[in-house]
Amino acid sequence: MKLLLFTGVSLWSLASARSSASVVQTGSISTPAGTVEITKEEQCACRELRASFAKNVILPGQANYTEQTKDYYWDVRADLSPACVFVPETADAVASAIEIFSSCNAQFAVRGGGHMNYPGSNNIDGGVLVALSSLNSYTVNKDSIDVGPGLNWYNVYTALESHGRVAIGGRMKTIGVPGLTLIGGFHYFNNKYGYAMDNVLSYDVVLGNGTQVTAAKDSHPDLFWALKGGANNYGVVTKFTLKTYSVPKVTSTIQMFNESAFPQFFDAMCHSAMVDEEDPTAAGMIATVSYNVTTKVASASLLGVQEGVSMPPSKFANFSSIPATMRINNVTTMGQWSSELDSPKQMFRVMFSHKTMKPDSETILSIYKAWKAAVEQISDVEGLYPTFVLNEITPSSLRVANTNGVGNVWGLKAEPLMIWQFSTGWALSQDDLRVEAWSQQLTERLHAINQEKGIASEFVYMGDAGGWQDPFVGFPAENVNRMRDIRAAYDPSKTFSRLNWGGFKLGM
Ligand SMILES: Cc1cc2nc3c(=O)[nH]c(=O)nc-3n(C[C@H](O)[C@H](O)[C@H](O)COP(=O)(O)OP(=O)(O)OC[C@H]3O[C@@H](n4cnc5c(N)ncnc54)[C@H](O)[C@@H]3O)c2cc1C
Ligand SMILES: *[C@@H]1O[C@H](CO)[C@@H](O)[C@H](O)[C@H]1NC(C)=O
Ligand SMILES: *[C@@H]1O[C@H](CO)[C@@H](O)[C@H](O)[C@H]1NC(C)=O
Ligand SMILES: *[C@@H]1O[C@H](CO)[C@@H](O)[C@H](O)[C@H]1NC(C)=O
Ligand SMILES: *[C@@H]1O[C@H](CO)[C@@H](O)[C@H](O)[C@H]1NC(C)=O
Ligand SMILES: *[C@@H]1O[C@H](CO)[C@@H](O)[C@H](O)[C@H]1NC(C)=O
Ligand SMILES: *[C@@H]1O[C@H](CO)[C@@H](O)[C@H](O)[C@H]1NC(C)=O
Predict the structure, then answer these.
(1) Is residue 363 included in any domain, yes or no?
(2) Same domain membership, residue 258 and residue 207
(3) How many H-runs (helices) and E-runs (strands) does the chain carry?
(4) CB 240 within 8 A of CB 182
(5) Residue ranges making up the domain that contains 234
(6) Residue 307 within any structural domain of the chain
(7) What is the distance in A from the centroid of ligand 4 to the CA of 266?
(8) Are both 420 and 364 inside the same structural domain?
(9) Which residue has the least CA distance to atom 13 on ligand 2?
(10) How far is the centre of ligand 4, averaged over its atoms, from the C-alpha of 260 (Å)?
(11) Is the CB of 272 inside a 6 Å radius of any atom of ligand 3?
């Protein structure tokens, strides 16, 4: 069976109308969306990069330009038109580029797997795009793996497969290693091994002045901590060393439910988040409800994975007892499983919005109903693809950071939480403002109800957040202050705050 997925189970064909940008004159690029100006600072950076690394610089109009500025991106809105693309092959080349950006005072963006979902989160108009795709080597060690930032999670799981080991990373095939690891990292096995960030043993980092450092428990420990959830506020990571675990086989489950089963489905999700074991069996899931505005049919899907062989998977017994429209359990490997779970790029314009709450299945059911009713208000939007996604945060998943002597920037105490998210896809740029405002307003309205009920959490996960959200508000204030102090020490000229476009920034 071949499944094509993004955050829900679905099939589609990718219609790609692409017209690559071309240079019409020095100082500007003409694109389908209009003219993009290139400042003299940005021209300086592209010129100096070409002088030192001619074969690694791609200009508008060249064949690879479209590949690097569009094909690698998940959200069509994130396709932008940089003045040039730099594709470094070594960490030293990344360091030279950062020195050039700093000396030219040029704006730049960095792209790993290209999954972050809004314009400017990982690409740039006019400035320089640093595309990490060629930093794609890896080394498998006894109980860790060294990974270049050009790799995706499928690459990592397959590299480890013959060793019978897994790393803690993304749940879909083509998500990038670097973005996910720098913002947290939800995997099926969080309940036992913590988040991707908790499993990084060391980071090789290029700082804002071009210096390269290794951040680990005993080498720049303050930077090591700040990189565990601190995103791209400190530097460009050129190598991650990730812990691995012996998990030769996994048991997977795919289950689908019709709307009659939703109350039980949400209840099983909430119970799963609340499981509080000292020594858990690694298992977890992603739950998605999709609603088709044409057929008016809603269906829920569960993608679950448990470590080891357990048929049927014991950790999903609460779901397995609900009448399903489809249920497939399988014993497989993490590599094989992830090979089936694609999230094709360039499928649509797409926006995420989410909030977090204490698990409460009746409230989740009412959020679902409010969402479904609200979808009708935008049902005329072309290519509308609305989904409602749930992700659990279990107490044991948070205990890993609380007991490993390092911690992470989230600073969450060990209690169950549920992230509820709207992922909304659509086709045309003319609907951007309407769909974006709809998604944000609906999310804020429902969160306000949870605040009143006293069941809201202010935690915001960068991976599920829209560009309008501020994850730093959800971290403890002392952690944010510490993150700023660490920035002052490692990036005193604020290269990554002034010049580097990207997802979630600490602010000036
Ligand atoms: C379909 C889909 C499924 C998802 N599933 C999951 C999931 O299972 N678990 C989960 O936790 N999240 C998930 N996410 C969210 C995902 O983790 C984020 O989108 C993440 O940013 C992806 O990493 P990337 O390398 O692909 O992203 P990119 O868009 O390439 O990068 C994200 C950010 O990190 C910066 N960055 C990239 N590389 C570096 C580097 N080497 N050094 C410094 N900064 C860098 C970029 O500039 C950008 O700001 C999913 C997203 C999508 C769209
Ligand atoms: C551009 O594409 C060609 C052909 O696929 C490839 O050989 C070359 O290395 C690419 N250049 C860059 C900078 O990625
Ligand atoms: C299953 O649900 C019961 C309550 O009905 C709960 O006590 C138990 O912890 C749940 N188990 C899992 C693995 O979610
Ligand atoms: C929902 O699915 C269950 C289990 O397959 C089935 O018995 C039931 O008739 C379905 N209900 C509707 C309304 O389709
Ligand atoms: C079950 O797992 C096997 C072995 O990894 C794989 O070949 C097969 O495609 C899987 N089947 C399903 C239905 O997932
Ligand atoms: C909704 O259902 C219609 C009719 O079956 C189908 O053509 C369309 O692709 C579906 N839309 C989505 C977003 O799945
Ligand atoms: C670069 O920045 C780091 C962190 O602030 C500092 O320790 C180092 O001395 C700087 N190197 C140079 C060459 O300025």
Answers:
(1) yes
(2) no
(3) 15, 23
(4) no
(5) 138-247+477-494
(6) yes
(7) 17
(8) yes
(9) 56
(10) 7
(11) yes
> Would you say residue 23 has pLDDT above 80?
no
pLDDT tens digits, residue range 351-377?
999 999 999 999 999 999 999 999 999
- Domain boundary among the residues 87, 103, 134 is at 134
Per-residue model confidence (pLDDT) at position 366: 98
Q: Please check whether residue 223 is in contact with residue 217, taking contact to mean a CB–CB distance below 8 angstroms.
A: no
* The pLDDT of residue 5 is above 90: no
For the chain, give the mean pLDDT: 94
Residues 372 and 414 in one domain: yes
- Which atom of ligand 1 lies at the shortest distance from residue 205's CA? 42
Listing DSSP states for 179-191 in one string gives HHHHH----TTHH
CATH code at position 159 = 3.30.465.10
Quick check: CB of 112 below 6 Å from ligand 1? Answer: yes
Residues with CB under 6 A from ligand 6: 10, 292, 294-295, 385
Mean pLDDT of 462-476: 97
pTM for the whole thing? 0.95
Q: How far apart are CA 129 and CA 345, in angstroms?
A: 18
The alpha carbon of 310 and the centre of ligand 1 are apart by a number of angstroms equal to 31
pLDDT given at position 242 = 98
Number of folded domains in the chain? 3
Q: How confident is the model at residue 25 (pLDDT cuts 50, 70, 90)?
A: very low
Q: Rounded CA gap, 34 and 125, in Å? A: 11
Identify the sign of the CA torsion 106, 111, 112, 117: positive
